[in-house]
Sequence to fold (318 residues):
Amino acid sequence: MSPLIDTQMLIDEAIESLESKVDDTAIIACSGGIDSTVAAVLAHRAVGRLLHCVYVDTGFMRKGETGEVREMFKEMGIDLQVVDASERFFISLEGITDPEQKRKVIGEQFIRVFEEEQANCGAKYLVQGTIAPDWIESGGGERDVIKSHHNVGGLPDDVDLMIVEPLREFYKDEVREIARSLGIKSSERQPFPGPGLAVRVLGDLTRNRVEACREACHIVEIRLQEAAAAGKCDLPWQYFAALLPVRSVGVHGDTRVHGETVVVRAVTSLDGMSAKYSDIPHDVLASISTEITNSLKGQVNRVVYDITHKPPGTIEWE
Fold:
């Protein structure tokens, strides 16, 4: 998207569309990510106090994320209701390892949380930050399912809310341009999947494994940001760690350990529909590997780097 005037036109059209569709109380899930935040700001400008913004802490958020999101919405002057639903999410996902099933369970639990919040505020509409890649990859019609996005393929059939999706036809680069025009703090934030760390922890979703992935992700984010700031490499479009259910023999001191594997993923992309793995210097990767294995000593003893493009791989592992 080039000129600012085009972006402003899209903003105006989205606000007008929301004004025509939403005539009663609406609720929106605000993860702090660029898609939901842009949708929330547009909806807030369109309907003001009719909008109730809810941040659901699923237990699968990144390190320090809840506090950062709360502060960002406060600065924008938008009320944000924070709901700690981590216990119900962990219970609902106990024993579920299939990635498609994870997304469907997460999608359903999101809706159940909103139904409870709906009872509190009397919401009639559910505003979502769904963008084009979400419904394209979720399949339907003649399209194959690449992966169900929790806000599309994960939605239960008995949703008692009218769904409004102001960004449905936009791609990630377009949404980012809109975010910049709106002055949204998270406009340069890297993409983060709706299900959060639940799809970066392959296998069982125990609190211990999720916490390990959270720490590994934090290390990858901080070290790659530092490397980019120092001119060692370009900052990737998306970069994170995933915890694999692959155990191998390792050594800590004189002790033989049997630990899990962390995979580091970093890609360059424009809109997320395709991507190339990022060329990260070996000394940066070595530093990340050492820090992860030292921080998660006894739990993780092997770190690998993913050099797969999209296609054939997806950006996330699940």
The longest helix spans residues 99-121. DSSP finds nine helices and nine strands in the chain. Confidence is low (pLDDT under 50) at residues 1-5, 145-154. Residues 4-188 form a domain with the Rossmann fold fold (CATH 3.40.50.620).
